[in-house]
Amino acid sequence: MVSDSRTPTAAGLTRPSRPTPHDLLDLAGWLGARTGVDLVGDAAVVVTGITLSSQRAEPGDLYAALPGARAHGAEFAAAALGAGAVAVLTDPDGATRLPPGTPAVVVPSPRAVLGPLAARVYGDPATSMRMMAVTGTQGKTTTTRLAESGLEKAGVPAAVIGTVGTRIRGEDVKTALTTPEAPDLHGLFALMREREVAACAMEVSSHALVMGRVDGVVFDVAAFLNLGRDHLDFHADIDDYFAAKASLFTPERARLGLVNVDDAWGRRLLEQATIPMRTFSLTGREADWQAVDVDATATGSTFTVVGPDGLAVDGAVALPGSFNVANALAAVAASAEVGFEPSRVAAGIGAGGGVPGRLERVDAGQDFALFVDYAHKPDAVEAAIGTLRPLTGGRVIVVLGAGGDRDPGKRPMMGEIAARLADVLIVTDDNPRTEDPAAIRAAVVAGARGPGEVVEVGERREAVREAVRRARPGDIVLVAGKGHETGQEVHGTVHPFDDREVAAAAVREVLR
After folding, report:
1. Are 446 and 433 members of one domain?
2. Is 432 annotated as ligand-binding?
3. Annotated binding residue 20
4. Which residues carry this modification: N6-carboxylysine (predicted)?
């Protein structure tokens, strides 16, 4: 990744308003105790922030110029300095590319020190709150959003960082990545500290762990939900993917682990983690935390949370599916393990609503059920359709595509699952990105061998309309793949597209 990311972020909303000044010489001395360091140029400057992007540089910033796949971040240093950056952090190669006289801290591997340095610049803000990490192939967004909602309703000032974005004490903050880069992340933590946040629930992706985005943070608890096929365009294989997730459960990254022992990979993690571990289960396996007496309906579930020392509290979640009970259980257990009252958190989750784009109902006056879900990987597609199937005596109609420039091996697998579990599968475009949309659809269709009827409708808007036109009273329509997303990427251009809005418009059109 080139360090000069062009993804826009509202910098004024993602940093503290009262930054702490640091002498560059002091920061270099602090780094020198950890790695080899050279100072270039006049070091008599004061640093108040840190950034990886020249386009988001602010006065007083230390600009981190890292080597990238296509360019070196040092090539953008002049722009960062022009925006007010006072110095550059880079490697020896980058130092040769800087404008003459640029104050610079030169280290062998700047990315390796970026997280701890960002934490230092912002005064180790993560230590001022209870930090909860959630990792897994499915359920990260739901679990963190449920935890944040439950804590807020329990009177705990909370924040959440993840796929849907960042929210601080109920206020949405736009961020570019599921897990922001380390400088942005620690800036967010500093902003949370200013706003007196007491707990932060955060999605931690395998990419974030491999690329050091959470370096400089030691989480109070890290929860592992599950592992399935995903991101094999980034990882060598499933074992490499698991190893990235497992790296979260080490003393350098977390103090306590919480693992789902219903998942085979979770049981494997339990055997190799190097920190104290707690367990949770939905299926009756022996565990520290369990959900029992589950009563599932089309609008959600009620259950009892059973915890250590005879604890038993009422739980509820306003999302259908047993996997959402597991997500809610993980949210309650993680919150309790860092010191919050489980009964109040559980009650807060029960009083809350759903999560954007996660089995989100769309109601535009139709006589059938319509859901939008983010399911875009095999396990998630199976879980979503499997959850909805028992809720109707009618048909299940699924609209599904696959993303371009991502693991192509999962495309026929998704087609096979959807055609096997749905009555009608409409294969369409998702985010083709730079690939040929027809080729992606062909790979999905190749795996879709029934028994469900398989229809190919390339244009996604028309595919949603086709699903709505086919739906009869009592049926369920699932539009899968994009969930909360509000754009569709085709050949490098993101076009406005929200499955929820498109589905509602299709219903109104059919009912007209």
Report:
1. yes
2. yes
3. no
4. 245
